[in-house]
């Protein structure tokens, strides 16, 4: 019996921009996002999050206060920088990410997920030699590595940020299901609320410049510090 040849990842067979965004937003992406709660587990330990409403409010606040004003704003600027191969700009953005990680576990998350995403891109042979060489010099934190992956999708900037925000929302919802805990229906309501908030968060990220971009969230930093020595935990942050 004859077998059809397996096509390589050429421009003719590569997934469309939309499919690449769905791929990058998937919790199945092997970069370890499922292992982080980004302070949620510590908030539960402290009694700040204890049911569906408080978990949803927590995630929405995180979306607007830290993701939109920080990492998503970095990605909005890093995507065109990758497309133009502006290495100085990429270096400056990467350094800003590292400087704004206020705890050891936040820094480790940025480094580990960036490294894993870069390995994924390298294994799929999607990044160019010049891009990989630039990565070797950085090395890229998660926001910079994700910006590289998003730049390769050649999708509109707002759609790229919507995809990564939805992927983050799914991870946060899954963390809440395990740690609060919540049922599946509650998780879907939580995800629906986050989905309604994402377009506004994306617009905020798109319009922030270097002077306005920020990562000021003192309560999150305190909770992250406490989580590092929390007696019982299932997440890495």
Q: Brief description of this entry?
A:
This protein has 237 residues and is mostly helical. 67% of the residues lie in helices and 0% in strands.
Q: Can you walk through the features of this model?
A:
The chain is mainly α. The chain has a single domain (35-227), classed as Orthogonal Bundle (Urease accessory protein UreF), CATH 1.10.4190. Helix content is 67%, strand content 0%. It contains ten helices and no strands. It has helices at 17-25, 40-45, 52-84, 87-99, 104-124, 129-137, 142-153, 157-179, 184-206, 218-227. The radius of gyration is 18 Å and the shape is globular.
Task: Return the domain count.
Answer: 1
Amount of beta strand? under 5%
Shape: globular
CATH class bucket: Mainly Alpha
Percent of residues in helical segments? 55-70%
Order of helices and strands: HHHHHHHHHH
* CATH fold naming: Urease accessory protein UreF
Distance between the termini: 52 Å
The major sheet is characterized as: none
Q: Give the overall pLDDT as a whole number.
A: 91
As a whole number of angstroms, the C-alpha radius of gyration is 18 Å
The number of helical segments is 10
- The second-level CATH architecture is Orthogonal Bundle
Tell me the number of strands.
0
CATH-level-4 superfamily name: Urease accessory protein UreF
**Structural class, from secondary structure content?**
mainly alpha
Give the low-confidence spans. Answer: 1-13
């Amino acid at each position: 019996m004859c077998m059809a040849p397996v096509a390589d990842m050429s421009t003719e067979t590569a997934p469309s921009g939309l499919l690449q965004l769905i791929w990058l937003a998937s919790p199945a992406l092997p970069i370890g996002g499922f292992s982080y709660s980004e302070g949620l587990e510590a908030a539960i330990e402290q009694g700040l999050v204890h049911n569906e409403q408080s978990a949803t409010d927590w995630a929405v606040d995180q979306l607007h206060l830290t993701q939109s004003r920080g990492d998503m704003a970095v990605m909005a600027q890093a995507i065109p920088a990758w497309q133009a191969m502006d290495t100085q700009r990429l270096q400056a953005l990467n350094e800003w990410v590292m400087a704004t990680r206020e705890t050891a576990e936040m820094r480790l998350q940025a480094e580990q997920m960036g490294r894993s995403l870069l390995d994924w891109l390298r294994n799929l042979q999607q990044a160019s030699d010049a891009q990989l060489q630039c990565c070797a010099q950085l090395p890229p934190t998660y926001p910079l590595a994700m910006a590289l992956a998003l730049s390769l999708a050649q999708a509109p900037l707002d759609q790229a940020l919507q995809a990564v925000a939805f992927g983050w929302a799914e991870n946060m919802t899954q963390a809440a299901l395990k740690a609060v805990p919540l049922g599946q229906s509650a998780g879907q309501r939580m995800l629906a609320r986050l989905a309604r908030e994402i377009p506004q968060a994306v617009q905020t990220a798109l319009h922030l410049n270097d002077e306005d971009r920020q990562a000021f969230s003192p309560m999150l930093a305190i909770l992250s510090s406490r989580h590092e020595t929390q007696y019982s935990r299932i997440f890495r942050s």
